[in-house]
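Researcher: Please generate the 3D structure of the following complex. Treat every line as part of one assembly.
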Amino acid sequence: ETVMTQSPATLSVSPGERATLSCRASQSVSTNLAWYQQKPGQAPRLLIYGASIRATDIPARFSGSGSGTEFTLTISRLQSEDFAVYFCQQYSTWPPMYTFGQGTKVEIK
Amino acid sequence: QVQLQQWGAGLLKPSETLSLTCGVVAGSFGTNYWSWIRQPPGKGLEWLGEINHTGRTHYNPSLESRVTVSIDTSKNQLSLKLTSVTAADTAVYYCARLLYDRGYYSFDYWGQGTLVTVSS
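Model: Done. Output below.
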């Protein structure tokens, strides 16, 4: 099973600043990597898939990069609604298996 | 716009069977896969299993002996059963649609989540 490790566990950022979140896979996942945002009491929301493709209606301030085992989610100019927990997720095609990172909490500094 | 609505028992005793249903309120099953994913309180997400419109299933190997996912296409519903539950199965359970786009898979629509608590 591919293990996903996110860092840091908590990121303190001021509104208007840039946030950079990391996700590392225990083995190569190519670009089979997605990012989600989750706010308290809500289901996760898809932000990025294919490592860098923004999902429908996701603002351009969210961007993803990386391939293989190292991935980054960047949020430029953080807005108040961006303070949340972010998860990365990889999938294996056969057998189908989806695993998530443990999450990074982005909090107000 | 696809909408998923979940329901099912929220409080179980150890050894009982968890049973949840997810209705596709807007839209249809199409050719997508539909998954169940859970999240213990304050923790990360764990994929449980998936099913498509033909009934083909795949499960997380760590839970495969206890998990069954089924569908009723006439009602646009999918269901989850998890047998022999313990306190470790306490979690918010989500149904979600698997998006396949440009060769990539991700979960684009989610149910509202159902908190299931296992306690004696």
